[in-house]
Amino acid sequence: MLRWRVVSGAGPVSLEVRPFLSGRDYHSLHHENPGFRFEPEAIGDAVRFRPYEGVPEISIQSNGEYSHEPLWYRDFLYAEERSRGLDFQEDLASPGVFRFPLSKSDGAMILEANADERAPSLSGAVRRADALAAAEERRRRAFSSPLERAADDYIVRRGEGKTVVAGYPWFLDWGRDTFISLRGLCLSTGRLADARAILLEWAGAVSEGMLPNRFPERGEEPEYNAVDASLWYVVAVYEYLAAAKRLARRISAADREALQDATDRILEGYTAGTRYGIRADGDGLLACGAPGIQLTWMDAKVGDRVVTPRAGKPVEVQALWINALRLAGTRTSRWKALADRAAGAFPERFWKEDTGSLYDVVDCDGVAGTADPSFRPNQIFAVGGLPFPLLTGARARRLVDAVEERLWTPLGLRSLAPGEPGYAGRYAGGVLDRDGAYHQGTVWPWLIGPFVEAWLRVRGGGPDVRRDAEERFLVPLRAHLQTAGLGHISEVADGDAPHRPGGCPFQAWSLAEALRLELDVLAGGRRSAGSRANPDREPASSL
Fold first, then answer.
1. Would you say 383 and 400 are in contact if contact means Cβ atoms under 8 Å apart?
2. At 92, phi and psi to the nearest 5?
């Protein structure tokens, strides 16, 4: 809905509004072609446009007068797409003009209705517009903070279930992003009905112990190419169950069984061995890797080259694996022995005494005893970001201090420390340039969550420490809400100052981890879950 009104000036004002239409998906641009349908259909006081077969219709109602004046507007130039080496010129079709005579007492209104709705009368549409505006104001006031309000944009319907859009405008729902984001978007905010629907939607997709990294679209095959997505799912399930118990929310026996069965099938598949060499090794740690396949969250690929292959035993995968075993072990003892073996091997295999940090990967490419010393943020998950830390005491403090010194920026953690071989301080240029820099120094705001949690843990987590952490780490991140995607947090930023934001300007896990910090971690465990007036309402969007 769009509305205009005159705020100053003498005499009447004539307003003309010309809509531009396309009918493309988010990975394409639109170009002039003879197949575009300009002619509208009249449906009462509304006009309906059907640009192409198979594309959703657009039904527009207004309190102005529509004149059919079809035109192509050519060569819109998108500077950001051009700087990224993408198609950057677009043609848009404009079927006509809506005209409004305005005065201070009159307003102009355009209301886009669902295509399958029957358009109300004009007076009914004006009343509906007033009601929608009032409802939207109430919706916004129901959230406890700007971060919580922004989080609502990522939880959407998928068929009869729910899912999380990883980022706008270029992502749909991805497994890894969904399960990381769910903790901040749903659990910290008390949206347990949404969390339930999302987790159950994915529970039926376990195959050979793995969840797909994304749901297929348009008949595509699922992509089971993530070692960590399934482990994040296990963590999300058990944190959901814990949140439900804490908030006295009932979980049905059928739901509990479905979720626990999914987590058992994941752990069984990983223990026995599954795709891409994923398997529990003799030391209890989780090995993974196959040529040409990017399995961890550092998943950039340039042509056939995986930029950061990390085959072997990546450090954050071990943290997730041991946490998943520990969590499942709270229900049944079958996973406890394996968790103990892996946790015992972890510090011996990963600790790097001379730098007070952890190796990024051990047994690289399956070669026993080898180690990758690249200084990356993945090691932070051994201390923060997960329920069970793998390091405590002096070693944990040394690690966190080293990460803060070498990786921290006001927008998150760098993916590689300056001075390391291959460090790229700017995420810029064409597709190949950006993919090559994606995990080679580029800053990731979502990592602020595990980092701050680790920072608090090694300092005792008292009230003064939490206040200090909020001022040092969360306040600069909140300032970013006004610099790129307004009210949201970007996907990435440059590793070099001034840390220019890049990637998706609206990213779910970036926002979710900031929200988890605000409502959970920095609240000292006093979660403000359920603070919203109606935390389990239906989302406004669908996928």
1. yes
2. -125, 145
Go through the domains of the chain in sequence order and give each one's CATH number. 2-137 (no CATH), 154-521 (1.50.10.10)
**Would you state the pLDDT for residue 138?**
92
Question: Which tokens go with 303?
Answer: 């042509």
For 488-503, give one letter per residue: b (16+ CB within 10 A) or e. Answer: bbbbbbbbbeebbbbb
Helices (H), 330-447: 336-350, 393-407, 431-437
SS (H, E, C) 474-529: HHHHHHHHHCCCCCCCCCEECCCCCCCEECCCEEHHHHHHHHHHHHHHCCCCCCCC
Rounded Cα distance, 314 and 381, in Å: 11
Alpha helix (H) ranges present in 152-207? 175-182, 192-203
β-bridge pairing 357-358 and 155-158: unpaired
Asked if 499 and 157 count as a contact pair (C-beta separation under 8 A), the reply is no
- 508-516 and 448-457 helices, crossing angle to 10°: 20
pLDDT in tens, 88-110: 999 999 999 999 988 767 788 88
Q: How far apart are the C-alpha atoms of 61 and 40, rounded to whole Å?
A: 12
> Are residues 447 and 380 in contact, defined by beta-carbon separation less than 8 angstroms?
yes
Cβ(427)–Cβ(434) under 8 Å?
yes
pTM score, two decimals?
Answer: 0.90
pLDDT tens, residue by residue, 262-274: 999 999 999 999 9
